[in-house]
Design a protein that fits this description.
It contains ten helices and two strands, in the order ααββαααααααα. By secondary structure, the protein is mainly alpha-helical.
Length: 247
């Protein structure tokens, strides 16, 4: 399976979509509107593509959680339920995309970076043999998990500590997010993870649900993060004791 795009779902974390303050419904609505707007744009004229990017960048500027992390305005629905690049030479749904040999060069990063970039999750196959389990998830949740290498590490550690399967930990986490009405905001750019200090995996999970965390820096563990983390630990203990399938 491809971490980026597979048969039923996709991840667009590297496009920066989880660096927006939108709730799930708001984010999906923005992506839908963005897609429709791009499809209505006559891209046979290069200046229209440039204008689309400029307007798109301005539109979401105040919605960014971290101003240091770029959010690409060319992200959209490339197929039913699948989020991806509207400029991709073979994946874009725009009927005029074939007019350009390298359409992604209209984007901020350009074709070489966009197509050559591998996040840590993809490069290191973060979820291992359990990766196929993620394919059953909706795109929004899939992207939150698939591109977050540090979170995957935490899930692995929790699974080993509690002697339960990785897929079971993921199931519990998704239910927990719904229960506490929290979501994940992050960038897929994972840097210098080898330098990270050993931290309680439950606290890291809590920190990621507490507020936006820059993956390349040491996770900030607040008292609220600890509280959320211990709540999740309690849910894991209850589910483990009951030995019941929760989803």
């Amino acid at each position: 399976m491809s971490y980026c795009q597979n048969k039923t779902t996709s991840c667009a974390a590297c496009c920066g979509i989880y660096n927006l303050s939108f709730r799930k419904e708001e984010l999906l609505h923005w992506i839908k509107q963005n897609t429709e707007s791009f499809l209505q744009t006559d891209i046979s004229k290069k200046e229209n593509i440039v204008r689309f990017r400029e307007l798109g960048e301005k539109k979401i500027q105040n919605q960014k959680i971290s101003q240091e992390i770029y959010v690409c305005p060319f992200v959209g629905f490339v197929a039913k339920g699948k989020i991806g690049c509207l400029l991709h030479p073979t994946g874009s749904p725009h009927p005029q995309i074939s007019l350009y040999a390298h359409p992604q060069n209209f984007s901020f990063y350009g074709e070489a970076i966009c197509q050559g970039y591998n996040c840590f999750s993809k490069e290191k196959e973060a979820y291992g043999k359990e990766a196929s389990f993620l394919q059953n998830m909706e795109t929004y949740v899939y992207g939150q998990l698939a591109g977050n290498y540090r979170l995957a590490q935490c899930f692995q550690e929790i699974a080993e500590q509690e002697n339960i399967s990785l897929s079971f930990v993921i199931e519990l986490f998704i239910l927990f997010m719904q229960k506490v009405k929290k979501t994940l905001h992050y960038s897929s750019f994972e840097l210098s993870l080898s330098k990270q200090e050993k931290q309680n995996p439950y606290f890291i999970v809590g920190a990621m649900l507490d507020k936006f965390q820059k993956p390349e820096e040491r996770v900030e563990i607040t008292e609220e993060a600890k509280k959320i983390g211990m709540q999740f630990r309690k849910e894991v203990a209850i589910a483990k004791a009951s030995q019941k399938k929760v989803i």
